[in-house]
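Task card 7
Instruction: Convert sequence to structure tokens.
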Amino acid sequence: MFKQGAIQLTIVRLVALTVLTLLAVGGPVVAEERLIVRAHAIAMHGTPKYPAGFSHFDYVNPNAPKGGAVRRSARGTFDSFNPYIPKGNPSSAGSANESLLIHSADEPFTMYGLLAESVTYPEDRSWITFHLNPLARWHDGNPVTPDDVVFSLNVLKEKGRPFYRFYYGSVESAEVTGTHDVTFRFKEGENRELALIVGQLPVLPKHYWESRDFTKTTLEPPLGSGPHRVTDFEPGRYVVVERVKDYWGKDLAVHRGHDNFDSIRYDYFRDPTVIREAVKAGDIDYFHENQAKAWAQSYDVEAVRKGWLVKKAFVHERTAGMQAFVLNLRRSVFSDIRVRKAVAQAFDFEWTNKHLFFGQYTRSDSFFSNSEIGATGLPSPEELALLEPHRDQLSSDVFERPEKPPVTAGNGWPRENLRKAFALLFEAGYVVKDMKLVQQDTGEPVRFEMLMRAGGALRRIVLPFQRNLRRLGIELIIREVDDAQYVNRIRARDYDVIALGWGQGDSPGNEQRSFWGSKAADLPASRNYAGLKDPVVDALIEQLIAAPDRQALVHRTRALDRVLQSHHFIVPNWHLSADRLLYWDMFQIPKVVPKNGTSFNTWWWDADKAAALAKARKETVN
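Output:
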């Protein structure tokens, strides 16, 4: 149930009058009443859960003590502290820049005041004004100003990653409208999410960046306003962030119970196996395990058996999105949908899950897996109303048959699936000669390359896939490269197949343009990895963005999901509805875990537990 008194409503009569011209100039003038909302928070749909004046989120301990030095790990390397540009490998330590608003973890999509203490917006959300908190300060003591906000929007759209141009693409302008006020105006069209999206804008200090080149990587920790700042680092090896003792927002309701550690050190490792050894040795205090085999087999050690090193899976209800083998539609070998369907038949998930994943995973069958917004069964009447206008452009399967990934017997020899694959390939004009699948007209063999990072765990998963493709006469080349080459090739779209994914939230919107939009397909740093260009997808994205309420959003997302699946540009992978965590028993955790799962940002250091752990380990060594 939503709490009452969550927002303050003000109805005003607009100064600007609506002029209705009938048949002649100078027709009647009609005054229009318009609802203007002044509030501490804004929800995508419905009413914010937490009322004005709330003291803290339900899933934190507002009295959590501050303290402790924590050691965490990071994979790969870093050569920059500028995460906003398409150059370099940014640090995993996160940004010291805050946003205007911050979302809660126990609602689909609601934003509460952070740098902005409140917002004002009309009922149609055609604009929004953020009223900055007069207390907001940069770490150098200067106030956060509306000029900083305007500068941030412009520099990110003009010089930042292409993602920002899409994400903020419908923002018409941002202007200073008061000493502490900044107003965003939006382009025409229904886009309820935009008011929340601009609230996510990372605010950068204009006075700091004016004398620096924003387009270049930097190893000077940039000026921020957040609860932590970088105090020590060595490129590619480690980063240390420390809590800002005089942080301006420490007493904000949205901050209580968060960012409780005095310092966090991130040590960088090339090999995840070495990270696991560091965790077991006590050199890393907290680790999120993402490999099923390691979770099942790598932690049978004394520290776990004695309870010193806690191994626990925290169940969550987050939207899993889609992780997949992504087929690059820019490559001619994948231009025929029948070839793409055939390739998918060669991945034996059931065997992989049983023998490599210890049965831990669920096959992903939606771009919005593990959520109510993913498509299931046949289209509902509401979905059909969205899809029918495009029937001539869509596969009949969208209307007649729910898309599901191929299923095998799990015995490692998917004979029936390979038969289906051969039928598709032969229909597409391919034949087998000398154990090779070739194009019948040209004799060109079918081969493609899977690009992956060197030293990862993906190879053992891809090898059985490679074997099954070989049974079809298709040559899959596994190409492992270092981090820098991998990033550069992804940006250059220089790959045939990659293993990547699209994380999704409970309330998808404008970011879908960057994921699947036609305009994003040719941008080097967008997340349209497959190069999909489909006007139907473009239209459905815009309808999703314009969803007037939660129920409409669900139907529109499901319709988009069906059309995306019908293109078969991925081989779906898997997901897990739990976070597999390992941590040394020196922390306390809030009792309430939100549906999005536990967050280390709300944990805190327990000095007594840490001392007891250190004593027990010392006694064991002696």
